[in-house]
UniProtKB/TrEMBL annotation:
Record's protein name: DUF3828 domain-containing protein
Length: 179
């Protein structure tokens, strides 16, 4: 075994201590920050790779508030459908939400990647680049995640290029208020 003895001046020792502290602190920051990134990415994949309809999103992947809104919408849609079937015009179309609510494009996406992610302990904001190759469309929406015993999707803020609606929650709330 070879050992090295370094004679360091006080200034060199202080510099090395600061350097070591900085490296250690930086490694801690990166490792702490990568946990939400990995968890958020996994949630994003579970929602966007396998979902075609906001109504079927796994409730474990979304916030309690968003889950309650979706459940209320599903209940209202079922009531609207039943009422229409029992009406004088049973072949008319009931009032339901159509199109993709998980993105601002009605047809939805078939490719995405996270362009930017910023987070603190309780929330995260993601800028996500979406693509619909069948329609040759590319756009960016903002996704809001909250840490509710794990990172969960809370809202999708829409790009105004495709819709006049502000967000997914806004669409759901407006539908529930409509008559």
């Amino acid at each position: 075994m070879v050992t090295f003895k370094l004679k360091l001046k006080n200034m060199d020792k202080i510099f090395l201590i600061k350097l070591f502290s900085f490296v250690l602190l930086g490694a801690t920051f990166v490792s702490c920050n990568s946990v939400p990134t990995k968890e958020i990415s996994a949630t994003l994949d579970s929602i966007y790779l396998f979902q075609a309809d906001f109504r079927t999103v796994d409730k474990k992947l979304i916030t309690k508030e968003l889950a309650e809104l979706i459940d209320s919408v599903k209940t209202k849609e079922e009531q609207e459908t039943e009422e229409m079937l029992l009406s004088e015009h049973p072949t008319d179309k009931p009032s339901i939400i159509e199109g993709d609510l998980l993105t601002s494009l009605y047809e939805g996406q078939n490719r995405y990647h996270i362009a930017e992610l910023s987070n603190d302990a309780d929330s995260a904001v993601l800028l996500v680049n979406f693509e619909q190759t069948g329609y040759n469309e590319k756009w960016q929406d903002t996704l809001i995640f909250k840490n509710e015993h794990g990172w969960k999707l809370d809202n999708v803020l829409y790009n105004n290029k495709y819709t006049d609606q502000y967000s997914m929650q806004n669409v759901l709330i407006n539908y529930l208020k409509s008559e």
